[in-house]
Amino acid sequence: QQNVYACQLRVFQYWQKSSRAAFDETLDCVEKNLAENPESAPMRANLAFLQVEAVRARYRIADDDLLARKQMLDEALANANRAVQIAPASARAHSALGAAYMINRAFPAAVASAREALRLNRGDAELQADLGAKLVQTGEYREGFDLLRAVIAQGGSQPPWRLIFAALAAYMLDEKGDLSRYASSLKKDESVLSLTIQLLDAAVRRDEMASQSLRRTLGARTPRGPEQAVNIIADRIYNEAILNRVYSDLLSIYMN
């Protein structure tokens, strides 16, 4: 029992501050706990989340090893489904299933699972933000924006992904004030998606100095220009209308 609590704490700490070393240690403790108790829904859900992370962050999987990637995707989905079977009233199990469906690009099923997780635990800010992000990623940015904005309005420290998807939705909805507010909170995040959103915001605000600086920073990460940036963003944004608008606006910025 002590090992279970210690492992759950390690999982929690990993998601607070993830790193490759912490990932390996966390996955190891989850797998050991599952070997002792295969019917543990929390550990089964933890394993599914970590397998999704392994694919997303390219941990333990070479970029060109498509077979290993597919195997990990299949295992994540199987583990999440098993967690739901063991504990159908567990919001975390349904959330893990949503994450597994999302990485497998089964978008309607991913959103449905995220909705069920929130239904089972209404008022949970993490689950609400997760549903909001999934809706934005798949093109339902009006509803997604409302959910994310409500969570962010509660105050406190916000993880970059919440601000990124809230800003992206604001951009698509032409909510310039919200776009600027969320983008300004992303200055420490230098992912390609974050830098792109900050650049789009600078262009909307007609801030030429910020725009030039962000173009240099983004250009260093994507030397082939807007097309490369959008190809990278497509790993996290799955809606063609969003990707097309981002590409068109980036092209205009780079040509001016």
Helix segment tally: 14
Termini distance? 62 Å
Strand count, sense and closure of the main sheet?
none
Give the beta-strand count: 0
What is the beta-strand fraction?
under 5%
Question: How much helical structure, as a percent, in the residues?
Answer: over 70%
Overall mean pLDDT stands at: 95
What would the principal axes of the Cα set say about the shape? globular
Poorly predicted regions are none
H and E order: HHHHHHHHHHHHHH
Structural class, please? mainly alpha
Q: What's the layout of helices and strands?
A:
Elements: H1 2-16, H2 20-36, H3 41-57, H4 66-86, H5 91-103, H6 107-120, H7 125-137, H8 141-152, H9 160-172, H10 176-184, H11 192-204, H12 208-221, H13 226-233, H14 240-255
Provide a short characterization of the protein structure.
This protein has 256 residues and is mainly α. It contains 14 helices and no strands.
Task: Describe, in plain words, how this protein is organized in 3D.
The protein is 76% helix and 0% strand. The protein starts with a helix and ends with a helix. It is built from 14 helices and no strands. It is mainly α. The chain has helices at residues 2-16, 20-36, 41-57, 66-86, 91-103, 107-120, 125-137, 141-152, 160-172, 176-184, 192-204, 208-221, 226-233, 240-255.
Notable traits:
globular; 256 residues; 0% strand; 14 helices
